[in-house]
Amino acid sequence: MKGFNRKVVIGLGLAAAMAGNAYAAPIVNVVNSDGDLYNTEMLTGYSTDGSLMDGMEVTTCFASAACETVAFDGTVGSSSYGEAIGSGWSLSINGDTYSSPFTFNSVQDVTSIVLNGRPGNTIFDILGGDFRSPDSAQGKPFQLSNSGDLADGTTVNVEYSDKLSLDGVFYDDLFTTMAIDFGGSLFSGMFSFLSDTDNNNFAAGSPITPTNPVPEPGTLALLGLGALGFGLRRRSIKA
């Protein structure tokens, strides 16, 4: 009987410890939205490392409400390394994004981080299994690799947006923007995360383009003049 009670107490203790650890860990929420829609004709393949994201825009916003945007540099370090270095913060990766983590560091209080992959021909691939675009293989959404200096119970919100179609077809696995915030809290220090990426085949003439391009300023001016002329004509007819 005593042995039985001892086992029960030990079991309850382990359960409480596990529940406490689960509560203490950062809480990650990952969602996706359409945002602005884009298209590319083909991908280069499914393996993307730090050197292949050259030009990607990384925007970090601070407690002061100021933001800083830095271009990711894929020409430094090893052949698979890339980094963006700002004023007191950095984002880097060394290796294939499917299995190698991004590492973010900041000595400033940060409210959010946004990665715009389009200038660097970089695409976020969030689905695996059979739900994937041709040549994208297995994807992987955001997951913490090392919570680092994220405080216990911190909420980490991640949103993928600005969805990408491949040759006009949306497979719902590819996005061109990833935004991270800390649920209204401030963050400083280090953490690392996994988030798989692909590349569009820009070299083969397959850029990322809007599916509904915004008219150029000259076109907008002509449309405005046309509308003005139509209005004047209607007034003259009424007179």
Arithmetic mean pLDDT = 85
Strand content: 35-45%
What's the order of the H and E elements? HEEEEEEEEEEEEEEEH
- First and last CA, distance: 104 Å
Low-confidence stretches: 1-22, 219-223, 225-238
Number of domains: 1
Number of strands: 15
Secondary-structure content class: alpha+beta
Helical residue percent?
A: 10-25%
Main beta-sheet annotation: 15 strands, mixed
Helical run tally: 2
Large-scale geometry: globular
**What's the gyration radius in Å?**
24 Å
What's the structural blueprint in terms of helices and strands?
Blueprint lengths: L1 H23 L2 E6 L5 E3 L2 E3 L11 E6 L4 E5 L9 E5 L3 E6 L7 E15 L5 E4 L17 E4 L8 E12 L7 E8 L5 E8 L2 E4 L8 E2 L6 H22 L1
Parallel strand pairs: 1-11, 2-11
Antiparallel strand pairs: 2-15, 3-14, 4-5, 4-8, 6-7, 7-8, 8-12, 8-13, 9-12, 9-14, 10-13, 11-12
Word description of this protein:
The protein has 239 residues and is an alpha+beta fold. It is built from 2 helices and 15 strands. It has helices at 2-24, 217-238; strands spanning 27-32, 38-40, 43-45, 57-62, 67-71, 81-85, 89-94, 102-116, 122-125, 143-146, 155-166, 174-181, 187-194, 197-200, 209-210. The protein has a 15-stranded mixed beta sheet that branches.
